[in-house]
Amino acid sequence: MHNNMKPEDISFGYLLSDVTLLFRKHFDRRAVRFGLTRAQWRAIKMLHHREENLRQTELAELLEMEPIAVGRVIDRLQAAGFVERHPDPKDRRAWRLHLTPRARAVIDDMQDIGRGLRKDATAGIGVEELKQALAVIGRIKDNLQALEQGETDRD
Fold first, then answer.
1. pLDDT digits (tens, 9 = 90+) for 54-92
2. Under 8 Å between Cβ of 42 and 60
3. How far is CA 48 from the centre of its chain?
4. 28-64: string of b/e by CB count within 10 Å (b at 16+)?
């Protein structure tokens, strides 16, 4: 697609955006039977990996989302029976989040969907190529985060 283009002619941001949109589209198609959005799945996955008992504000930080947006995600997960809120014994204003058996029942299936999609997306790409691509993208992310930090320092 970009073989005859010079590096400075490639719209890196658009390419990454397209890949992200396609991942989301295909993930949503595969996960529709569980009735979970990506944001809801990310919240469940994070709670599962962090062994639950997180406060909503902690979950928001881990997901890099605004607390109010995470609150809405948790509201929907609670209404659907995937998450329960328990009062925080140390802070009456806070809630601790816990997965329900219904959430635990879909975790393996949702992880299988993610693995299958990654396998399909990387078909024909060698392990070393993939490692190199991920390393480069990781460095680009680091550079952008450093820019963000520099902007924060100047404010």
1. 888 899 999 989 989 999 999 999 999 999 999 888 888
2. no
3. 13
4. eebbeebebbebbbbbbbbbeeeebebbbebbbebbe
Q: Which two tokens stand for residue 101?
A: 């058996």
Find where tokens 């299988």 sit.
112
Strand 83-88 vs strand 54-55: parallel, antiparallel, or unpaired? unpaired
Identify the residue whose tokens are 């029976």: 81
Residues 6 or more apart in contact with residue 116 via CB below 8 angstroms: 30
Tokens representing residue 44 in the block = 């469940």
Residue pair 26/19 in contact (Cβ under 8 Å)? The answer is no
Answer whether 99's CB lies under 8 Å from 52's CB.
yes
